[in-house]
Amino acid sequence: MKIENFTIDQNSKVFIIAELSANHNGSIDVAIETIKAAKRAGADCIKLQTYRADTITLDSKKDDFLIKGGSIWDGKNLFELYQEAYTPWEWHKELFEVARKEGLVSFSSPFDPTSVELLESLNVPAYKIASFEITDIPLIELVASKGKPVIISTGIATVEDIELAIDACHRMGNSDIALLKCTSSYPAPIEEANMVMVKDLADRFGVIAGLSDHTMGSTVPIVATCFGAKIIEKHFILDHSIGGPDASFSMDEAEFTQMVKAVREAEQAIGVVDYTLTEKQLHGKGYCRSLYVADEIKAGEVFTKENIKSVRPGLGLHPKYYNEVLGKTATQDLEKGDRLSLDFVKK
């Protein structure tokens, strides 16, 4: 998968996305400063969400449209929430230009055909399908038909949902797909993160896998990296004091910076399968165990548990010869502290 200058594959570094979402709180100036802060924090990409309240839900007061079930938005009406949270469409061009000047990739999550049309007019390099849109097969087909990478969150998806979404992309001739493990709770409990799913998504569906994270802190992104995540998305806010619908589970600049540092260190720590020793390890091997003379031994005397020992450093005879040497006789006089050698053992 290639998104602008970033190649995302099993050998690449993690592609880190800062999700702007509703964290502008209705101010384009805040949105612009947030993009700049995301760059300072080490993000590779800034992502928007492209919808209006009437493109994502209905303006209805019926009970079906009332949010309930233990979320931070319980009691709100869907239309009212999205009316508060949306990013004005007339901002998109300027925000993408700011991101480009900052050296960030930028794209968005569309929620209906009109938002796809807008994003196509702005020549986005990729698309993100949000967790709750994974069942919108016509939307996925439309997005996939544009021939650009499609990143799909799986927060509420069954295996069948994921298969249907992938099949929709394939029908449009698009196999440039990434799946993100996501827990669709806001914030998400860490015990429900289930990061073993990252590797399973990659193996089961033959795609790039990653994480769209709503937990608090950096622990889950670090674990995801260790399980092979190649994309990590995290909600980003300029300052928690801005408030807004997503503020409580978003990272500010200092928190995001720390997460990026931790992810990059995790990447370095993972390394590769390699049993050869580095120069430092070879030097350290000199402090392992080896066989030394522990008491004065005269020529012809027997080697015993008292006069030879396995001790540090590792410059003497390998300890694997210990039992072989015991009971044999010395070929010459030896002093305490001499390195034992097979040359000193009578054959």
Architecture blueprint of SSEs:
Layout: E1 2-3, E2 6-7, E3 15-19, H1 28-41, E4 45-50, H2 53-56, H3 78-85, H4 92-102, E5 105-110, H5 113-121, E6 127-129, H6 137-144, E7 150-153, H7 159-171, E8 177-182, H8 196-205, E9 208-213, H9 219-226, E10 231-235, H10 253-270, H11 279-285, E11 290-293, E12 308-311, H12 322-325
Parallel strand pairs: 3-4, 3-10, 4-5, 6-7, 7-8, 8-9, 9-10
Antiparallel strand pairs: 1-2, 11-12
Helix pairs in contact: 1-4, 1-10, 6-7, 9-10
Structural commentary:
Helix content is 33%, strand content 15%. The protein has 347 residues and is of the alpha/beta class. The model has no long low-confidence stretch (mean pLDDT 95). It starts with a strand and ends in a 22-residue tail after the last helix. The longest helix has 18 residues, at 253-270. The strands form 3 sheets. It has an 8-stranded parallel β-sheet with strand order 5-4-3-10-9-8-7-6. Strands 1-2 form a two-stranded antiparallel ribbon.
Tell me about the biggest sheet? 8 strands, parallel
Helix content: 25-40%
**Class by alpha and beta content:** alpha/beta
Instruction: Give the end-to-end Cα distance, rounded to a whole number of Å.
Output: 65 Å
Name the average pLDDT. 95
Number of strands: 12
Estimate the strand proportion. 15-25%
Overall, the morphology is elongated
Order of helices and strands: EEEHEHHHEHEHEHEHEHEHHEEH
Order of adjacent strands in the largest pleated sheet = 5-4-3-10-9-8-7-6
What is Rg?
30 Å
What's the helix count?
12
Q: Uncertain runs with pLDDT below 50, 5 residues or more? A: none
Oligomer: single chain
